[in-house]
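Structure first, sequence second, as always.
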């Protein structure tokens, strides 16, 4: 069993990241519930205006709800990513990281990261369509419909898929070698 400080710190950071994401997701869910209560008219704080720059507050609520839903989805995907990385680190701690399961985990991480990009793109496109012109000046909205394309992010995802194939090939080669010895 290999146990180094690097693995210990990494495991701690991954657990902390999962907790932060879970807490953030819970906060967004509570906020989304409060927003739904206000949108249905069951309760509205007196300080909330009926309109924001000539746009009905219900329309603003829709935009905020969409952003919250995207945030919840991204945090859920992040938890799954951190969990898969934690499993890879755990297998390295146990002394055998080059197994097919880790190749599958790496591929899953690549797909989950693509999912994060997809959620960002979809939410940005939808907000870009539904946001009124009066509010566009008040919202930082750059890139394609608010979506910031990152070539480095795409490169990282491609490298994760390549690494998954390397892990898969290496574990198959080791299985063959063990079968011939």
């Amino acid at each position: 069993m290999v146990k180094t400080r690097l693995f210990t710190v990494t495991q701690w950071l991954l657990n902390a990241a999962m907790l932060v994401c879970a807490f953030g997701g819970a906060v967004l869910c509570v906020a989304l519930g409060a927003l739904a209560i206000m949108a249905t008219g069951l309760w509205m704080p007196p300080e909330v205006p009926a309109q924001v720059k000539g746009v009905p507050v219900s329309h603003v609520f829709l935009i905020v709800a969409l952003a919250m839903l995207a945030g919840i989805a991204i945090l859920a995907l992040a938890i799954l990513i951190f969990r898969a990385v934690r499993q890879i680190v755990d297998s390295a701690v146990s002394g055998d990281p080059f197994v097919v399961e880790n190749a599958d985990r790496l591929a899953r991480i690549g797909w989950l990261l693509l999912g994060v990009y997809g959620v960002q793109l979809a939410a940005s496109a939808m907000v870009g369509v539904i946001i009124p012109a009066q509010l566009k000046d008040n919202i930082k909205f750059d890139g394609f419909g608010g979506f910031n394309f990152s070539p480095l992010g795409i490169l990282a995802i491609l490298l994760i898929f390549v690494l998954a194939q390397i892990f898969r090939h290496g574990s198959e080669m080791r299985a063959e070698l063990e079968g011939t010895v």
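Margin note: The radius of gyration is 22 Å.
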